[in-house]
Amino acid sequence: MASFSIGLNGKPHGFFAGARGLRQGDPLCPYLFVLVMEVLHLGFLQLIEQDLQFSFHWKCEPARVFQLGFADDILLFCKADIDSIRVFKVGLDRFAKWSGLRLNVQKSHLIISRSAQEWKDQMLAVLGFQEGHLPIRYLGLPLISSRLTIADFILPKKIMKEIEKRMRNFLWKGTTTSGYAKVAWIDVCRPVEEGGLGFKNITSLNKALMSKKLCDVIRCDRTSIWVQWLYHDRLRDTSIWTIQDHGGSWGWRKLLRLRPFLRSSVDYQIGNGATFYIWQDPWHHLEPLIERFPRGPRLLGINESTSSVMLFQRESGIGLPLQILSVWRSPTPCHRFVEERTGLFGDLTKDNPQHRPSTN
After folding, report:
1. Cα(279)–Cα(239) distance, rounded to whole angstroms?
2. Are both 250 and 312 inside the same structural domain?
3. Domain end position, chosen among 219, 237, 265
């Protein structure tokens, strides 16, 4: 139970306990709020699983995202149709009956895509909300911001050079106009312990901040909705290390180009293999197996995205494990090495001469 004090002449005088309920600032409030929001989420989830007419937003369906929360505000996503809107209406009404918490319809908005404008009036009537438009404003600020930070995307080289130029000029002259640099900028950016001034190198800082985002993807951070969405929408059973960088947005392509920078700094500890791609991930310090043995999955008739440590298996069900490290150490061509260890290439190619490995 929270205690309160009355301030007189700038000083608190005594404390008294609240008669009932909780007040703002009570230590229990955040935990109780999380529990109540979890009830709301589970209520929606139950209705969605029971109602086959509910449809996810097409970009949210792979990761099954239908709700996001920001403090005491929530965002709900669905396909722009009456049936899906009704599911949310039932969930909100049921939650209000359970908890006594009812949405303020005057402050709630329904944002409808341009392709569904013909059903706009019907959907607004179901929820009783006002029509909203992007960008959404949260606490007075646009939730979809057009002003990005250094941790949001790879800065163009021209921009980074201009920022560092202005920093140098301001350091030596006190203005952003051109001035004579007394010390090389690389020395200025060294730590104080090494004789520098401890300034941040913009290029290195930007690369480090963006590499952190890439690390979240590499280690499969399932607590991140963004990472979950990437695995369902972008990667789709493909390793982050081998996916091509010619698709997707400009920011996504720039992020993928940081992979060579991280590759020498990443060590793999293979667990149960659930999120591990044995052919594509660089678990060995030399190179991914698919680069050393590019025709392996096709000739062996297996999926190169497999995470199983049992790479080879005959039709009889008998597993043929292969010592992967031996592939790099073997002086013979890879296909001949595997043939010698498993006898599998003969089984796969004897009926199709054009697929037989070269003996050269």
Report:
1. 9
2. no
3. 265
Dist. CA 283–CA 6, nearest whole Å: 63
Question: Cα angle vertex 128, ends 125, 134, to 5°?
Answer: 95
pTM of the model: 0.56
Give Cα 70 to chain centroid, integer Å: 18
Is 354 inside any structural domain?
A: no
* 137 and 242 fall within a common domain: no
Instruction: Tell me, yes or no, whether 80 and 114 share the same domain.
Output: yes
Same domain, 122 and 204: no
Please tell me whether residues 44 and 108 are part of one structural domain: yes
Alpha-carbon torsion angle 239, 244, 245, 249, nearest 10:
-80
Handedness of CA 274, 280, 281, 285 (dihedral sign): positive
Does residue 208 share a domain with residue 293? Answer: no
Question: Which residues span the domain enclosing 284?
Answer: 267-330
Q: With beta carbons less than 8 A apart as the criterion, state whether 309 and 278 touch.
A: yes
The Cα–Cα gap between 273 and 295 comes to: 22
- Main-chain dihedrals φ then ψ at residue 123, nearest 5 degrees: -70, -40
Q: What's CA 79's distance to the chain center, in Å?
A: 22
Q: What is the pLDDT along the chain (360 residues), one digit of tens a residue?
A: 567 788 888 888 878 777 666 666 677 788 888 898 999 999 999 999 988 789 999 888 888 889 988 777 888 999 999 999 999 999 999 999 998 888 888 889 999 988 888 888 999 999 999 998 877 776 666 666 556 667 777 788 888 888 888 888 888 777 656 666 678 888 888 888 988 888 888 888 888 888 888 888 888 777 788 888 888 888 887 888 888 877 777 788 888 888 888 887 777 776 666 677 777 887 766 677 777 777 777 776 666 655 544 444 444 554 444 444 444 444 444 444 444 444 433 433 333 344 333 444
Alpha-carbon span 122 to 107, nearest angstrom: 19
